[in-house]
Design brief:
Order of helices and strands: EHEEHEHEEHEH
Number of domains: 1
Oligomer: single chain
Number of helices: 5
Distance between the termini: 29 Å
Number of strands: 7
Structural class: alpha+beta
Strand content: 25-35%
């Protein structure tokens, strides 16, 4: 059975979950497309207007943003394409499979994360990053589980 996705549940608290989840992945290999970024910092009581500062980031810029101290993710819709690769709009799992997109990270309602990846080694790395006390749950999903899913955080 082919595995392409993970469902991850994080605790409802401030953290730098993006950094923890993607730890050990070479982020420099990708251009990061930020479709939604709704975050709160501990010192702010309202969502930060532009957590990432741009809608397209290099791997270095993306890493700098996710490495910040504690923040609270409310919604995030992030897609990564190989550097130099063509980006296309992705709304469904089927779109993802047909595209050049390599990674999809979606966070909804602060605690529900979906992670899609075309590289099994990266998927396993993310799975291992999410095992532990800081995470509520992590579960592999098969193609059958992912088929028909919308890949948009809203």
């Amino acid at each position: 059975m082919l595995i392409y996705s993970l469902d991850i549940r994080v605790k409802n608290e401030y953290s730098n979950y993006l950094n923890k989840i993607l730890n050990g992945i070479n982020l420099l290999n990708y251009m990061w497309y930020i479709n939604t970024d709704d975050f709160i910092y501990p010192e702010n009581s309202s969502p930060e207007e532009n957590f990432f500062g741009a809608s397209i980031l290099s791997g270095e810029e993306f890493f700098r943003c996710i490495s910040r101290d504690n923040y609270y993710m409310i919604f995030a819709d992030i897609k990564a394409y190989p550097v130099g690769g063509e980006s296309t709009e992705i709304e469904t799992f089927e779109d993802f499979l047909k595209s050049n997109c390599e990674l999809v990270f979606l966070c909804t309602d602060s605690i529900f994360i979906e992670f899609y990846c075309k590289d099994r080694d990266i998927l396993d790395k993310v799975y291992n990053n999410c095992i532990g006390d800081e995470f509520e749950a992590v579960q592999y999903k098969s193609i059958a589980d992912a088929t028909g899913r919308k890949l948009i955080a809203w």
